[in-house]
Amino acid sequence: MNAYEPKVKETHQQLGADLSETGNPQSAIRNSQSDNPHSPLPTPHSPLPTLLIATTNKGKVAEIASLLEGSGRRVIGLEDLPQVPPPVEETGTTFVENALIKADYYQQVSGLLTLADDSGLEVDALDGRPGVYSARYGGEGLSGAQQIALLLEEMKDTPEEKRTARFVCVVALVGAAGETSGKRESARRLDGAVVDSPVMQQIRQTFEGRCEGRIAIAPRGASGFGYDPIFIDAELGRTFAELSPGEKSSRSHRGKALRAAIKYLEALLK
Ligand code: ITT
Questions:
Q1: C-beta 219 within 6 A of ligand 1
Q2: Alpha-carbon distance 178 to 198, whole Å?
């Protein structure tokens, strides 16, 4: 096998354990390693390739960038791509399918190791809705406040004990994760020359995180985004919009999925 033939590892990890808490959510998305932070190109000799955060949701960008701070990777967002590609259509019926659709698409257009997230709110009294359709709940173009009002209206007759819900997040990582611990192999370059080259570990992997809670009677709090003002964390008794960014990351579906992804990458490249 040469370096141009991908060795793809493909699995889905459902996260049970919560890992560690990190960082400042308002940090810039580019965080390290490159002399030129505006170049989308991978750092030439780094064993850790540039990571593309492929989301159009600014709330997610802030949370993901904060969690990746200190990872040692150079992290860029869609706005850093020379020609920003159009958003991909999410045609899947599960979080895993949609996360992979986004990660595969942006990995192909960028050539970079790509991280995408598909997430949503599952409400038991609504048979799991809005679920994978959380971003489009009520139809395209509704604001977060309008979606919250619609959800509360649908649940106006639902008693306290039946207002259980959960946030779910699946993070997909697709691409060349990094050099595998000093291993080298022969690879044929485009000009035909055979060169000694580091083995790149190709991955296509998903990680799931969940957070249990219940739907509030009315919105509370001003932080976060989306459905945060009506999602009461089961253990803390406060809505996600009443938590600091660090508290939310330590509890949230996205924090759990991302910490599992980071742990996986670190273990892979040991
Ligand atoms: P991308 O596809 O570009 O990442 P998106 O917002 O369309 O952006 P999703 O398809 O994954 O992302 O939809 C997720 C929706 O679920 C999001 O728009 C919110 O309405 C909701 N959601 C997910 N995580 C949330 C969180 O942490 N807090 C509040 N709402 C959240």
A1: no
A2: 9
pLDDT, one tens digit per residue, over 136-179 is 999 988 999 999 999 999 999 999 999 999 999 999 999 998 87
Catalytic residue among 118, 157, 191, 196: 118
- Tens of pLDDT along 91-145? 999 999 999 999 999 999 999 999 999 999 999 999 999 999 999 999 988 999 9
Average pLDDT over residues 207-233: 97
Please choose from 63, 151, 227 the residue to mutate so as to test ligand 1's pocket, defined by most ligand atoms within 8 A of CB.
227
104 is known as an active-site residue: no
CA–CA–CA angle 173, 175, 177 (5° rounding): 85
Domains (range + CATH), the chain:
4-269 (3.90.950.10)
pTM, full prediction: 0.83
Instruction: Give the gyration radius of the chain's Cα atoms.
Output: 20
Q: State if residue 55 touches ligand 1 by the CB under 6 angstroms criterion.
A: yes
Summarised one tens digit per residue, pLDDT across range 13-50 is 654 333 232 232 223 344 433 333 344 444 445 567 88
Rounded Cα distance between 172 and 8, Å, is 13
Q: Tokens 């000694």 identify what position?
A: 196
Contact 171, 257 (CB under 8 A): yes
Tokens 């064993």 belong to: 47
Q: Is the CB of 227 under 6 A from ligand 1?
A: yes
